[in-house]
Amino acid sequence: MLTRRLTRRLTHRLTRRLTHRLTRRLTHRLTRRLGLGLAVVAAANMVACRDDPVTVYVVRHAEKAATPEDDPPLSPVGQARAAALPETLARLPGAGPLTAVFSSPFARTRQTVAPVADRYDLPILTVGAGDIDGVVASLRRLAPGQRALVAGHSNTVPRILAALGIRGEITLSEEAYGDLFVVTLTSPPTLERRTF
After folding, report:
1. CB under 8 Å to 160, separation ≥6 — which residues?
2. Cα 98 from chain centre
3. How many CB atoms lie within 10 A of CB 115?
């Protein structure tokens, strides 16, 4: 009887100790492995975000009406062009939702980007027509992977592109409408010229 009790106690103690040790070891190993796995996943996400550059779509306002001279709205042709802009942006390679829409305070630029702002439920951020540095600073503050639309004028679009780091002369005539510049803010930035 003493032997049975002694055997039970020893068996019970050994079982508890072994179970406790094995549990601790397995827990430690799994935690280490899962922790390493989670760290690898987090690092991969950080690299993916860092490698996903900001994309900026720069357009000149669409066709404007002849009057009033100081701040003409879009003409019917310009309104049709502006209405097509959201679908054009959606069909671009790598397209995704926009996070910001910038415009000068003039009616024609605001009306050009309004369909895009409506589609993504975004406010139109108004920036002075000549405030190139302000627009570019706002664009450079965007998080990796974000996309923004900027509407300017024939004399400001080339300056915006140059301030974003695009090399080479880009000119827009007073009669040219429908140019869509896709700028990818990589190092160095890239430019693709399209139409809308």
Report:
1. 58, 132, 135, 136, 150, 152
2. 7
3. 17
Residue 104's identity, in one-letter code, is S
Q: What is the rounded distance in angstroms from the CA atom of residue 178 to the CA atom of residue 86?
A: 13
In contact, 161 and 170? CB cutoff 8 Å: yes
Residue 38: band (very low, low, confident or very high) from pLDDT cuts 50, 70, 90: very low
Q: CB–CB of 164/138 below 8 Å?
A: no
- Is the pLDDT at 30 greater than 60? The verdict is no
Please give the Cα distance from 44 to 97 (Å, whole number): 23
Answer for the pair 39, 31: CB distance below 8 angstroms, yes or no: no
Which tokens in the block code for residue 144? Answer: 């990796």
Give the number of residues written for the chain. 196
Kindly report each contact of residues 62-69 with a partner whose C-beta sits within 8 Å and lies 24 or more positions away, as own/partner. 62/108, 62/111, 62/112, 62/177, 62/178, 63/177, 64/108
